[in-house]
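Contributing: when you submit paired examples, paste them exactly as shown. First protein:
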Amino acid sequence: MMQSRKLPLPITALALLMLPGLAQAASFDCDAKELKPDEKMICENRTLNDADVKMVTTFDLLSGLMAMGSRGTLQDEQTAWLTKRQECGPDAACIKAAYDARLKQLDETYKKINRPL
């Protein structure tokens, strides 16, 4: 009987980022005319852009793993986090800290899921 193994979420997200096309653009349209200040900074800063892609990839992965009743909570947390990120405006350090905190939170959520990949 084969035993399923859970890969740590950061490793899974990193593997997904290595797929062609995923690590190239933010999760929103950087060519849009009405970008918010935080979005403009993310589009201009490769580190922030990469953090955005990692965060949305991780979020999407978790959404697929979670029970349907828990997805609403995850989405509510994401909406609240986006509001906090927007409060950073064009402050790159603030935006980076927001991504670091959110990725840590998503990793903790993943650790609570008792289900093999």
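Second protein:
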Amino acid sequence: MSASAGNERGAGSGLRATATRLGRETPIVQVLILAAIFIYGAATLQGFSSLTSIKSMLLLSAFLGLAALGQTIVVLLGHLDLSVPGFIGVGNVLTAILVGQDGWSFVTTVLVILAGSILLGGLSGLISHHFRVQSIVVTLGVNFVLLGVIGVLAASGITGAAPAWLTRFATVGTATLGVGVPPLVVLWLVLAVIAGFFLRRTLAGRRVYLTGSNPVAADLSLVRTGRVVVAAFALSAATAAVTGILLTGFSGSGDVTIGTPYLFTSLTAVIVGGTSIVGARGDYWRTVIGAIMLTVINTVLLAKGYSNADQQILFGLIILVAVLAYGREPRMRDLI
């Protein structure tokens, strides 16, 4: 009898261990939650599961997912980037002004925006790493500076419109190579594949995880952690700026406040997807699922008549739950 009970306890422990390992290695919980929310929306909201609605949600998810691409790598390092809204605003407003009003070529504008964003983002990483300043403080300061700059630039009004082709690229009704999927969604999928490969299959990606797990051990392994941190913040700034450029096509023009909703949603998508806020655990595919999940939740809430304040409360609670769920496990740096 005791042997049978022991076997049952052993089997139960084995199942729990397997479930825990599966949850760590795959975003199965997030996928199940996403499926449940979608089924609820489809069952209670007319037109929620229509093709147009699905494409619209994927398009909005793509914007959020792109904004959170660099953020994912920053979080894997154990840092946070709160300058995402500022860089989105810079990309959006400068594209509308330089291309729509001043007649700059789109390519030149993109290069200028990316160069400035990469330099300033890298500077944030450099200050945080070299001077041991909390990244949340540095990037929040950078965000305020950027919002002030675009506020000055847009003080006399933004009259420039997005190029027609950019509008087609970032809208629901456009197909890709005859397939009814918006080009932006296809671009997001391609970038997700590249990001997933980079993080899991390249030496540089492994350095990200090693630095996020234990920067001291990474230094001893001849990993230049300073360069890793600087590159991560530069990438986060670049992906946020690109998101702003693409949002110009979606909105049709420039908007100083267009990046504001992404202040916490870009971070929430990363955390809800299952990437640990303490670093070194997670990947970009989890962020992809997190972005889709948040977009579906937001769509359901809007359709149900909830206000923006209600949505902020819910997203705040989601962040707290996710941090408690994924932030309890100690990092390697805390065990050594």
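If you have annotations for the second protein, write them as plain sentences, like these:
The radius of gyration is 21 Å.
Residues 74 and 232 are 6 Å apart (CA to CA).
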